[in-house]
Design a protein that fits this description.
This protein is α+β, with helices and mostly antiparallel strands. The chain contains five helices and three strands. The two termini are 30 Å apart.
Length: 119
Amino acid sequence: MLKRRQFVVDVTHPGKASQPKKELTALVAKLHKANEKDTVLYGFKSVFGGGRSTGFGLIYDSSADLAKFEPKYRLIRSSLATKKTRTRKQWKDQKRKIKRTWGTGRREANRAAKKAAAS
């Protein structure tokens, strides 16, 4: 349904700090015979005392499925999407425009502001 495989990842690293996610992604992709770009690992927690970490992993069937189903913030983390950058002034102008319009025009102003924010 979501065109992916999901699993829990347990990593043992005695005497070392936690492993970088890039290395783990490459290893997991190799183990499952999948593309490294379609593999997402997140949510790692180290056990108290160190030596072991547990996280969650997803392997998507294709890059298109990854872009479709993965949350925006994780796409930004893996540099598959870019973060919208707006200045404080742009936010304030948008808010002021919505506040000043009244009635049905307010709905249109809100739509226009959202459209401008998306681009």
